[in-house]
Amino acid sequence: MDESSSTPVTTGAGPGPSVLAPTPPQHAVRPPSKYAAAAIPLALLGWSIALVPPLAVTIALRLRELDRADSAANLGLVLGVGAFFSFVTNPLAGRLSDRTMSRHGMRKPWILAGALIGYVGVAVIAYAPNVLFVLIGWSVAQVGLNFALAALIAMLPDQVEPHRRGRVASFISLAQNVGGVGATFLVQLFPIGTLQVLVPSLFGLVLMLGAIAPIKDRTRTERPAEQFDMKALFGSFVFNPRRYPDLGWAWLTRFFLNTTQFTATGYLTYFLIANFDVSDAEAPTKVFQAVLANAVGLLLVTPVLGWLSDKIGRRKPFVITASLIATAGLTLIALSTSIPMLLLGQLILGAGTGAFFAVELALLADVLPNEETAGKDLGVANLAQSLIPIAAPGVIGAFGYPGLFLGGAVFGLLGAFSVTRVRKVR
């Protein structure tokens, strides 16, 4: 992990409170942007609306159009390669935003560039003549959207004081999951085709850019002391878990719960088609109903738990409880024999994942080792992507979609254990 903690960072606004370090450097100031506490969740709402349509619905349907017989295997390939590009891009984008000296700020230029690149990838998916172009389009989209995500997430420790992070993190969780509802609602308004791919993502990206426009971004006025050489480049993707064990265990917890969440999202369309005789044309509406049920569960718990976590100064009990609830919900989905039973499972899963994401980002921010490399370190934390796209085709072939979901539920139990190993945060 790099040690550029003395890098001067300033903004054009007056002095603000410390974000991560107890006493900020004398040359470091923060923009006192109260709007950021609302703008960051709103921007991530837009980001989610841009991401979810291809991830949950439109890629799956495009692949069935192009090659119905091998659609499940192709989906695993496309999502797996996309996950790789997400894996590579996120920490690199965070590192680059930490070093950016633009007069427009450290984070905003990357959010704008990421939005434009991401939408180019979505457009490639919409017009793809074969599976290869779907793969290329999703890879490009993941690069762009993860550039934007890394910079957006880095705004949390930039702009929000520690005692407010639980509340803001809960609103981020709420926004991202409500974004899934909005995204799938938009998708099912259009027939299968180009507009179904293009319009929802465009709406989400416009919302994201509009939300961050008024924020006074951090700006850097002096060049970083550390050279950005090959060692620094590869250092963007690693941290030392022996030196920072709390970050390591928080990372592992996030990996386990991301796996649980993604299992119920990435293959939901095919699960409905294969196990409930849902047609391709009906699938977007059924996915919307499932995502809506998930969001209802989330809405019941997220706002309260983020506030309560800040109030009592504890994070781990909420993560443990959330992991167990999410495990129960995904298990019920796996054993579902009817749509109502599946929707109930989604409701329970939503309550569990909502409780987790209400506090997990605040937990990560609390264990970051260095405020001046927050973008890079949160980018490394975002490497905790699910490996489900890589493993899913083999698991589905051997055990079917219920087996895939039960496997995801096991990861929820592992998440409940791993968070108990974090020492710095109660």
Automatic annotation (TrEMBL):
**UniProt KW keywords:** Membrane, Transmembrane, Transmembrane helix
Name any GO cellular component annotation: plasma membrane
Instruction: Give start and end of each Major facilitator superfamily (MFS) profile domain.
Output: 34-426
UniProt subcellular location: Cell membrane
- The annotated region (Disordered) lies at 1-27
**What top-level branch of life does the organism fall under?**
Bacteria
Spell out where the chain crosses the membrane. Answer: 35-60, 72-89, 110-129, 135-156, 168-191, 197-215, 255-276, 288-308, 320-341, 405-422
What residue stretch is flagged as signal peptide? Answer: none
Residue ranges, compositional bias (Polar residues)? 1-10
Q: Which GO terms describe its molecular function?
A: transmembrane transporter activity
- Membrane topology label: Multi-pass membrane protein
User: Pfam family of this protein, just one?
Assistant: MFS_2
UniProt-listed InterPro entries: MFS_dom (IPR020846), MFS_trans_sf (IPR036259), Sugar_transporter_CS (IPR005829)
User: What is the name of this protein?
Assistant: MFS transporter
Which organism does this record belong to? Answer: Streptomyces dioscori
The taxonomy runs: Bacteria, Bacillati, Actinomycetota, Actinomycetes, Kitasatosporales
